[in-house]
Amino acid sequence: MPQIKPLQAGIMTNDQKKKLCEKHTQCPKMKQSDLAKWAKHTFNLLKIPGQTTISDILKKKENYLGMSSAELSLRA
Length: 76
Known about the structure:
globular, ARS-binding protein 1 N-terminal domain-containing protein, HTH_ABP1_N
């Protein structure tokens, strides 16, 4: 039986933020509210990230897309 990841509280990892940016690149017409719901489901978050959080992540999109593997494992 596959192991279920526990719900994650709080801050998203840089890797999760990068994946959110990649999703936005793949689906540029997707609303930020829909991206937030996608992130909650995909990353098993306790709550849906706020619109401001999604907006802040997307503003720094180039930073997240250019991060090294070591940087991606960090929470920021």
